[in-house]
Amino acid sequence: MLTRQYVKADVDGQIGRIRLNRPERYNALNRTMIREIVKVMEQFDQDETVAVIVLSGEGKSFSAGADIDEMVDATPISMELLDPFADWDRISRLHKPLIAAVHGFVLGGGFELALACDLIYATPETQFGFPEVGLGVMPGAGGTQRLTRRIGRTRALEWLWTGERMLAPEAERLGIINRVFASEQFEQDVMTRAHQIAAQPPISVRLIKDAVDKAGDLSLQDGMDHERRNFYLLFGTADQTEGMQAFLEKRQPTFKGN
Ligand code: CO8
Prior knowledge:
- Keywords: Lyase.
- The protein is an alpha/beta fold.
- It is built from twelve helices and nine strands.
């Protein structure tokens, strides 16, 4: 168990699990906590025994956002010098599938942390929201950008301006999250899904993520060129030979990750 001050982490099969562990403060994210989360994520990303990373929260909630106590006295210059988002930026450079398994409150920076993951699963009672406007600020860790890309400008604006909360089934309907799983067996359902992805050939999984990430930034033709290069690359893997051979021989493939 890779336990740190604000984070618990362990490996279950091929799943690297990270739990935010500041439950008495609804897992409010201070700088140390973000640094710890990202460090463990990077450790798992480099660990050959881990195929998928699952991020969740201890206690009643995933996270009520950035630690307001830590921000109350900040100035533009102190923020510029501190560069608090440098750690956040490293999340988007991870290669392995990153799943946010959320419950309770998922607010502000907590919501931005979930949106920085590849997939989001939630319990039906989970409440998502960006309350920053009511604090005289706005999201700063990607909220306006990632939310707008998912639900479009008009919906994003209304939600960010009002600071209203949304329940998980509505977030699922709008395509902000992937799926809602019943609370009673939430952890099992998330782990089943994580194991399902972990069983796939890891280089395919990695290059699919890489290509999908390009879809937001490149023109269609440039994106397709990038996709094609990744596609060709996979024909250099043993897992491609095994996957196609197994299909022809009508048996289950055994992937080795190379
Ligand atoms: N920061 C610091 N402390 C918090 C936070 C927070 N975000 N959220 C809860 N807490 C603390 C409370 O102060 C309280 O502490 P104490 O017991 O010492 O009084 C404890 O957690 C329990 O909270 P409540 O008593 O308020 O519990 P309730 O059940 O009444 O309410 C809520 C729970 C609804 C979650 C409520 O606590 C709340 O509204 N919290 C603040 C939510 C919020 O505004 N989040 C946005 C923060 S700003 C942000 O996220 C900007 C992100 C930009 C990236 C920043 C990178 C540096």
